[in-house]
Amino acid sequence: MKPYLVLAITLLSIGTVLPSYAQCPYGCDSPPSPSNAQQTQLKLTDKGSLMVGLYTDPQHPTILNLTSLEISFEEKDSRTTIPNIDYKVSITKNNDLVYETSVLHSQQGTATAQYEFRESGQYQVTVYVTGMDSKQIQENASFVVVIDSPSVPEFPTSAAIVLLFALVSIVMVSSRIKLRLQN
């Protein structure tokens, strides 16, 4: 019974110590939050009537996580928000359409589209403005969004030393127990 108890305690200590050494050196993604959003791009539309801003939340989107595309519509000179905009959003990868909304209306001059990217790589997000202040217009602004793979925690050298120490301890305890059982 005693050898199994020692072995169980050793294995449990390894299982609890090693995960505490996990690190995320490249900035693990935190869950989406308003404070995490940043404006990644602000562009003039192709015909120059207004500015379109694109924010992503999280700041660095990854695959298989829901990404919010926060869109703003602003005056090109004063940079004030333009209310009553009709728009639609499309997302393409390698010129293949992967997502598109219907024509939507924004009363406040801001909008949100959500999408879960399935592959890492470079995507093009195009915002089509089809109406402004009850006037029909046909303008667009295109943005590049890069989607990364999720960060993988890395284990430092000290974790390898702890693992090596634990394995040596198991071998030593096992050899002593076998000697006592044989005597």
| Alpha-beta classification | alpha+beta
Instruction: Indicate the CATH class of one domain.
Output: Mainly Beta
Low-confidence stretches: 29-39
> What is the CATH homology-level superfamily of one domain?
Immunoglobulins
**Which sequence of SSEs, written as H and E, runs from N to C?**
HEEEEEEEEEH
CATH architecture of one domain: Sandwich
The percentage helix is 10-25%
Biggest sheet overview: 5 strands, antiparallel
The count of DSSP E runs of length 2 or more, i.e. the number of strands, is: 9
How is this fold's topology laid out?
Blueprint (H helix, E strand, L loop, with lengths): L1 H16 L20 E7 L5 E8 L8 E10 L9 E9 L2 E5 L3 E3 L3 E7 L4 E12 L2 E13 L9 H26 L1
Helix pairs in contact: 1-2
What can you tell me about this protein's structure?
The chain is α+β, with helices and mostly antiparallel strands. It has a domain at 37-147: Immunoglobulin-like. The protein has helices at 2-17, 157-182; strands at 38-44, 50-57, 66-75, 85-93, 96-100, 104-106, 110-116, 121-132, 135-147. Strands 4, 5, 6, 8 and 9 form a 5-stranded antiparallel sheet that branches. Strands 1-2-3-7 form a 4-stranded antiparallel sheet, with no helix packed on it. Helix 1 (2-17) packs antiparallel against helix 2. Mean pLDDT is 79; it is low at 29-39.
